[in-house]
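Hi, here's the filled form for the chain we discussed.

Project: internal
Contact: R.S.
Residues: 293
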Amino acid sequence: MKKIALVLAALLTAGTSFLAADEVPSSDTKVVFQQGQPAGSIKKVTIALKAENLVINRTEEENISIRIDSNYMTAVPQVSFDSKSIKIEQKDKKSVKLQNRICIVTLSLPKDLKLQEVKIGGDSSDIILTDANIQKLSVITGDKGAITLSGINGQSLELKSEKGDVDLSDIEMDKDFKLISADGAVSLKNLEAADFTLETEKGKVSAEGLKAKKVSVNTDKADAKISFDTMFEKDSVIYVSSGKAEVELPSNAVLWTAGSVDKGRFRSDFTEDSKGSLLTIKVGGGDLQIQKK
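And the returned structure, exactly as it came back:
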């Protein structure tokens, strides 16, 4: 995440030479939009981007700040406000066709601001969000868009990634966490939620420091290693269609398993105990191993 942040920072502080929209631009960017807005009663943020990168961070200022840096004067995302919401949208269909275009949207939120809902959608957009309190957060990326979240608190978080990498750390959700990744590496570290759902099709999955009361994991053609710091309290499921999945549980965990194994293999370090939580497993042509930490 630090590398991405440094790259974006370098772009933001680049030179100010500017070319016409129909010319091939350099990598230089300059501020094409900047506005402050009193936080007041703002509760909802909606962002829809196309090939623009997004940074949401914390500011010590009292106002919300929106800044857009680009090397094109055209195809700038539109920003609108009302008393309770902020909307940032890319409506120009030509934006993804502009050659060598660089555009970075930065939304800075006061440190004490608590938002009820944030919806983020991006096609070919890298998204970085740090240090925020958001009750309901939804992030969806299409094509090649990476998602990096750190220090996020709230009620529920839903992520959908088509091809980009996903890097999450220090996430705490009182209710639901759901991640669906079609293709790309997934890294989770220090994540807590009441209900934890992870669905992956391709790519490597590395997850550690997880805490959840209920777990649902479904992997297909993935190489996954998932480690829980606490034992889930409710009945949970782990499905492995193909590939390999290693799941670590606390050594004192009490559980019993049920399910089916087709052409794959299932192994467990734990002794069956019907007094514990039920773990339903389904293994197709893959390999699932439940290990003691």
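Let me know if anything looks off before we file it.
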